[in-house]
Amino acid sequence: MRQFFPVEDLARDERFVQTNMAERMKDGRTAIELKESSAKSRGASKRLTPERHDASDAARGLMHGIMVGEIQALEGAGRTAHDFAAGDGTNDTVPFELKLDMARQAWDEARHVEISAKLSDWMGTELGEFAENTVLFEAACSNDPILRLAGVNRALEGLAIDVFTQMKEFGDIAGDPYLEFCEDWMLADEVTHVKMGSDWLRKVTANDPDRRNKALEFQQVVDKLFSFGGARGESPESSFTLAKRFRELAGFTDDEVKTISEMDAEALAERRAAVLRYREKVGADAPA
Amino acid sequence: MSDVTTETPNVTVSPAKFSFVEFDADEIATLVSELAAMLEIANPIRVIVDETTPLAKLSEELDGTGPEATITLHAESGALEDRQHPMSFSVTNASESFGRILLRAHDRLRPDFTDAPEDLDLTLEENAAWDTYCAGRLARLGIRVNQQRWRYNHRNRFGFDDSVDVAFDALWAADDLGWADVVATARG
Q1: pLDDT at position A188, please?
Q2: Do residues B54 and B133 share a domain?
Q3: How far is A242 from chain B (nearest CA, A)?
Q4: Does the beta carbon of B146 lie under 8 angstroms from any beta carbon of chain A?
Q5: Residue A13: its chain B contacts at CB < 8 A?
Q6: Is some CB atom of chain A closer than 8 A to the CB atom of B1?
Q7: Are A211 and A268 a contacting pair, CB within 8 Å?
Q8: Which of A194, A227, B153, B176 keeps 20 to 30 A from A48, CA to CA?
Q9: A30 and B57: CB-CB below 8 Å?
Q10: E strands, chain A, where?
């Protein structure tokens, strides 16, 4: 069986259309408020709560993003279980127990894909209705298994913790028992996946501080990418927040959580500046 | 930026040229004209698209209630785009979006809708009830509408239980309601 699968070769049926971050960044539109919102604007906060005027459609879009994210997480964990030989963690090998954890994660993710597909159906979304951003799998394409753990288990699955916490709360407030229950169960799995990544990263790099630093630097790059221009963050402009408590349970230190939070704010500011530059270029005013 | 005006029933679209999305004002004007003809709306129509946001808010307003009253449709670009190919126009999604607010405009021309609040003053529940009523009628007119999407929207506003589904089904199947009937049917 082939090893080291490039993102372009992910198998999908004709219902799915894929995109990537470079394509998404070409979109000069934004939902971010660039100036004071008008008094009559309904639902000025972008936080994904049932109070938003477009709550159900926004939740449908995020749910579809979760579903394709689960497919890519399954592919990422499966690749890591397969791509590296069992060994002591040096010379492109990984401990056999790490492979077992990846296999267990792949099993969890496969179940999450099924749950998410059924939730999408429940919410009135067709599979493939929204473009699939392949950025998540790209974090699983490193040749170093430890960078994959940083990118997939800590950054991607960390993002899943944040998103699932928001969706669980959405289901709770809206009174949707299926959404709340399913997100709660999947959230429990994601905390475990992040914990596995945190533990293995520390264990395998215990005697290799350079490799550990390189992995943590890679994680920061991926984390900033996964902020999606400030879609995650503490600002009311952000759709979902950093789930600090669950991240702590998953092995993130306070400093790490603080760093991610600061990067989310940076990503939002950079997105805002990029949009203003784009508007200047095309000669468009900020919306009234 | 000048508007685009179609040759047939007086539809203008602003902006005439799009910078953020790959939309064509003529195509939008033609689509809205066809939908208006299908819904038997002869009033002049202005379409204003906010192409600077990917959100999908829609609203309509009228400057009167007679046949000469101008209907203004406001659409954020996300309501008209192809969700698989962001920034590209989708006739299917635009038909549903414009169809929905044209039906609302059509309702507002009726005497028994004069007490309906302006769009931005509707409560979230009132908004959802009216959307359900419009989406059901659109589906029967042959416009592609995903009923489950609107059922989920309705449940989010009224609750997740069987009585809400019964009210949803009644609204979905209804025709010729006044505003008070729409609100009462939604409440079950």
Answers
A1: 96
A2: no
A3: 23
A4: yes
A5: none
A6: no
A7: no
A8: A194
A9: no
A10: 18-19, 85-86, 93-94, 132-133
Q: Is pLDDT of A95 > 70?
A: yes
Residue B114, domain member (yes or no):
no
Task: Using an 8 Å CB-CB cutoff, list chain B residues near A231.
Answer: none
Among the partner residues B57, B85, B151, nearest to A53 by beta-carbon distance: B57
**Total residues found in chain A within this entry:** 288
Q: Which of B52, B86, B109 is the last residue of a domain?
A: B109
Pair (B97, B14) in one structural domain: yes
The percent of residues above 70 in pLDDT, for chain A, comes to 95
Region of B17 (left: φ > 0; alpha: ψ -120 to 50; beta: rest) is: beta
What is the per-residue burial (b if ≥16 Cβ within 10 Å, else e) of A79-116? bbbbbbeeeebeeebbbeebbebbebbbebbbebbebb
* Most B-contacting residue of A18, A25, A35, A56 (CB-CB within 10 A), to test interface: A56
- In chain B, residues with a C-beta closer than 8 Å to the C-beta of A29 are 20-21, 51-54, 77, 87
Tens-level pLDDT at each residue, chain B (188 residues): 456 655 455 899 999 999 999 999 999 999 999 999 999 999 999 999 999 999 999 999 999 988 899 999 999 999 999 999 999 999 999 999 999 999 999 999 999 999 999 998 999 999 999 999 999 999 999 999 999 999 999 999 999 999 999 999 999 999 999 999 999 999 98
Measured between beta carbons, the chain B residues lying within 8 angstroms of A42 are 57, 120
Looking up tokens 């392949």 gives A134
CA dist A15 → A126, A129, A132 (Å): 9, 8, 11
Q: Helix, strand, or coil here: B86? A: strand
- Mark whether B79 and B166 lie in a shared domain: no
Does residue A161 have a pLDDT over 80?
Answer: yes
Is the CB of B84 less than 8 angstroms away from the CB of A129?
A: yes
Per-residue pLDDT at B3 = 63
Would an 8 Å CB–CB cutoff place A25 in contact with chain B?
A: no
The residues near A210 (Cβ < 8 Å, ≥ 6 apart) are none
Res. A143 pLDDT band, cuts 50 70 90: very high
